[in-house]
């Protein structure tokens, strides 16, 4: 369980976040949605302790992230940010291997190697594991990063807009992978998403963020409604019944 | 797609068996590289004007000049190449190394100041000052990099070289005012000519640096993936940055005082190695070590033989070769985008 209590963060005079109180239960996929600049990514980054907060506390599985050793947290929660540019020339397998750093401190054991192989297979990168990252397409590279955070073997996985720069097919595949990670591996996945329909279809819960506040939090069915979405996104949204569930139409 | 998923999961167990783990340290090519490097080192022992076999005091001369010189080549070559690698990881930039970030110039400034203030000080005191100023200068450069996001990776070494030029100009001015210009020129021109028994021993300290880099290799690689990924896997990024800067400053300071400038060495060696082997730091380190030693040794042998019985400083040869490789790397980078 991830619990935020009275979390605030003042970015600049115009942009402020919180106070946010939020409880994300264990298991499943929780999507953070909302307009640009609402603070979704900032919230996620704070939960992943990559950014400090001004006030409030965040607890993950009972550990206060401000007071827990970063090394120990790395075995509980992993976070992947949007932009990952490396100068270092690594193969897929080497990159995924770094996910094991919290467990092995770089000296990979048999268990680590197995875990790396499983993550690579899980994301369908088996045939690409020896390739260098700069030789991969954007979608493959994104999958390699996700494989790295899955190899970290944490109960909580935080992903900041993993569908960025992915085309339709790769976006769908990525969401299927994450959905399976939650189902089959029992991970709690928290993900920032831009496309409300991806959230509606693949997420178990949706948390709508607007102007630095959590305005709605509930199951996908509770959030996928005309009045809720229209209010969150400040634009008329109509939810219609699609072939595989509700679809938000906004143009 | 879903079908292939299920088959993926089913075959996991089978596939796990035949997989080669990453980063094996000792391989046949490495052994060949080691033999080649040892060959060069042995060659270096026997190249020179003095006839160590014919002359009566040949053995003595061998011990006074040839062995110290060759040991210095090995230590300085390995240390500077490894420092270049660590620096490139920490700055996430392929074009930095102690001579393109001003680190050597800062070490030179420290050395000059201590020579003015305390002319009779021991080599150890001189080195300590050079190390301290090198550390300070490198931290200034790193602080600048963290504050300013530079669009192009090529700008970073240009800024570093400009910073180095400013520091170098300050040194020159101070030297001019205090009549130290000539001795400064001698100190800084990287040359192994003056490496004699009794004067080079502090260089052994850089062997320790090389070992520490080997031990901390994984931390530097993880730090090289950026602050966010490093923090995600539980690494204290700032601590690693400080450790790396300290190691670079110590090695650069000592090498500058004992040998002088070795331009571009830390730049070209890691780049050549990564071009052929990718960037698995742990398995690359021995290669960086060997290639650093080999290049310095080759350059020194060229410097010793090209105008025999005289010598040209190794820094001259290194600068010519290094600059050519540097330009080639820049062009390659542009082609790849």
TrEMBL record, chain A:
Under CDD domains, the record lists: ABC_Iron-Siderophores_B12_Hemin
**A Pfam family for this UniProt protein?**
ABC_tran
Q: Where found?
A: Cell membrane
On whether Transit peptide is a keyword of this UniProt record, the answer is: no
**What's in the keyword line of the UniProt record?**
ATP-binding, Cell membrane, Ion transport, Iron, Iron transport, Membrane, Nucleotide-binding, Transport
Q: Does the keyword ATP-binding apply?
A: yes
Gene Ontology molecular functions: ATP binding
In terms of Gene3D superfamilies, this protein maps to: P-loop containing nucleotide triphosphate hydrolases (3.40.50.300)
Regarding the membrane, this protein is recorded as: Peripheral membrane protein
Q: Which domain of life is it from?
A: Bacteria
Q: Where is the ABC transporter domain?
A: 2-236
- Identify this protein by name: ATP-binding cassette domain-containing protein
The record lists the organism as: Brevibacterium daeguense
UniProtKB/TrEMBL annotation, chain B:
Q: Which SUPFAM superfamilies match?
A: ABC transporter involved in vitamin B12 uptake, BtuC (SSF81345)
Q: Which UniProt keywords apply?
A: Cell membrane, Membrane, Transmembrane, Transmembrane helix, Transport
Top-rank taxon, per record: Bacteria
InterPro entries for the chain: ABC_BtuC-like, ABC_transptr_permease_BtuC
Q: Where does the record place it?
A: Cell membrane
Q: Which residues cross the membrane?
A: 25-50, 70-90, 124-145, 154-174, 180-196, 203-220, 240-273, 285-307, 313-331
Please name the CDD domains in this protein's record: TM_ABC_iron-siderophores_like
Q: Tell me if Iron is a UniProt keyword of this record.
A: no
UniProt topology in membrane: Multi-pass membrane protein
As for family, the record states:
Belongs to the binding-protein-dependent transport system permease family. FecCD subfamily.
Its recorded name reads Iron chelate uptake ABC transporter family permease subunit
């Amino acid at each position: 369980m991830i619990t935020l209590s009275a979390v605030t963060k003042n970015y600049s005079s115009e942009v402020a976040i919180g106070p946010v109180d939020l409880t994300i239960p264990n298991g499943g996929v929780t999507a953070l949605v909302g307009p640009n600049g609402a603070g979704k990514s900032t919230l996620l980054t704070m939960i992943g302790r990559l950014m400090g907060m001004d006030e409030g506390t965040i607890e993950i599985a009972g550990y206060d992230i401000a007071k827990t050793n970063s090394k120990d947290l790395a075995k509980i929660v992993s976070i992947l940010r949007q932009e990952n540019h490396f100068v270092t020339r690594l193969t897929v397998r080497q990159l995924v291997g770094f996910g094991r750093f919290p467990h092995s401190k770089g000296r990979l054991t048999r268990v680590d190697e197995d875990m790396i192989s499983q993550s690579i297979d899980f994301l369908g990168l088996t045939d690409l594991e020896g390739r260098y990252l700069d030789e991969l397409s954007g979608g493959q590279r994104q999958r390699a990063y996700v494989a790295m955070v899955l190899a970290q073997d944490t109960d909580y996985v935080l992903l900041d807009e993993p569908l960025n720069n992915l085309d339709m097919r790769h976006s769908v595949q990525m969401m299927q992978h994450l959905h399976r990670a939650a189902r089959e591996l029992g991970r709690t996945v928290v993900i920032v998403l831009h496309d409300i329909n991806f959230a509606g279809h693949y997420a178990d819960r949706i948390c709508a963020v607007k102007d630095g506040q959590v305005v709605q939090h509930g199951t996908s069915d509770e959030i996928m409604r005309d009045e809720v979405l229209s209010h969150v996104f400040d634009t008329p949204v109509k939810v219609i019944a699609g072939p595989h569930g509700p679809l938000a139409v906004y143009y | 797609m879903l079908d292939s998923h299920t088959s993926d999961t089913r075959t996991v167990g089978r596939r796990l068996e035949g997989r080669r783990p990453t980063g094996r340290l000792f391989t046949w090519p490495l052994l060949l590289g080691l033999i080649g490097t040892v060959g060069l080192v042995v060659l270096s022992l026997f190249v020179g004007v003095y006839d160590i076999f014919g002359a009566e005091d040949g053995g003595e001369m061998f011990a006074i000049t040839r062995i110290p010189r060759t040991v210095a080549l090995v230590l300085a070559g390995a240390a500077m190449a490894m420092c270049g690698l660590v620096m490139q990881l920490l700055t996430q930039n392929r074009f930095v190394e102690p001579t393109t970030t001003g680190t050597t110039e800062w070490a030179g400034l420290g050395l000059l100041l201590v020579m003015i203030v305390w002319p009779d000080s021991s080599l150890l005191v001189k080195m300590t000052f050079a190390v301290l100023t090198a550390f300070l200068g490198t931290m200034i450069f790193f602080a600048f990099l963290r504050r300013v996001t530079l669009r192009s990776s090529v700008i970073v070494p240009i800024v570093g070289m400009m910073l180095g030029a400013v520091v170098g100009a300050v040194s020159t001015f101070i030297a001019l005012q205090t009549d130290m210009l000539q001795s400064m020129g001698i100190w800084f021109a990287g040359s192994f000519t003056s490496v004699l028994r009794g004067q080079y021993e502090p260089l052994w300290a850089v062997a320790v640096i090389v070992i520490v880099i080997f031990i901390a290799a994984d931390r530097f690689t993880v730090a090289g993936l950026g602050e966010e990924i490093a923090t995600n896997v539980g690494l204290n990024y700032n601590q690693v940055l400080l450790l790396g800067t300290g190691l670079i400053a110590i090695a650069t300071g000592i090498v500058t005082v004992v040998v002088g400038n070795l331009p571009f060495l830390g730049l070209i060696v890691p780049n050549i190695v990564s071009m052929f082997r990718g960037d698995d730091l742990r398995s690359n380190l021995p290669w960086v070590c060997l290639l650093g030693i080999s290049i310095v040794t080759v350059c020194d042998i060229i410097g010793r033989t090209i105008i025999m019985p005289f010598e040209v400083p190794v820094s001259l040869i290194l600068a010519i070769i290094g600059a050519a490789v540097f330009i080639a790397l820049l062009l390659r980078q542009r082609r790849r985008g």
